[in-house]
Specification:
The protein has 241 residues and is an alpha/beta fold. It contains ten helices and ten strands. The chain binds adenine. Adenine binds next to strand 5 and helix 5.
Amino acid sequence: MRVDVLTLFPPMFDALNHSIPAKAAKAGVFDLRVHNLRDFPLNRYGAVDDYPYGGEPGMVLHAQPLEQSLEHALDGRADVPVLYPHPHGKPLTQADVRHWAQAPEIVLVCGHYKGIDERFRYLHVTHEFSVGDYVLSGGEMASIVFLDAVARLLPGVLGDEGSARTDSFEEPLLGWPVYTRPELWNGLKVPEALLSGNHDRIRKWKRKQQMLWTMERRPDLWASHELTKEDRKLLEDESLR
Ligand code: ADE
């Protein structure tokens, strides 16, 4: 997957030179190219932003440097989705992340300060997403969040292919609590079912914990979960703690 990022702050994307995204790059499935909007200034004073018409506080990125930087990044390629992270966008879900992990190429446009000139957005942006109902100082952090979530789904990136499939949000329920050695720590024991060696019991324990966590933490998700017959039984099963 090729990703071109347009930003005023290229070094922020060094965050993706670690952990899973770095592994994806090394495996050759994640090709990140970061472009500095300051390389395409509007005038000889290096301007890339200006005060908004109408007189509010803050700065707006000029359309022209954005367009020139986009043309440079696309280098003649057509039909490449252009994504703009913005708090007004559609809240990003794991289903969206799965969708974008299938895309061969995308561009991410990072706004800053007050945002980008509406005319550039109108002409060039094809998709918008938000990473939550709060305001970040720019699109960089949101793009990094997005790219981390996407990179880990690229083929061959996660060592254990199963580990993405068992993530919270890969299905409508949250995950379950996890434990590692020792069995007893600070007076707290690892749940008996996990030590039982009985695969069916372990599966049932995990399923029950998923339901309990979802019920407790995300009543909105729980409300749309349809209980199977086995789910009902597991919820009543006092031995599965
Ligand atoms: N830019 C600023 N805030 C944002 C948010 N919440 N999501 C995506 N992009 C943003």
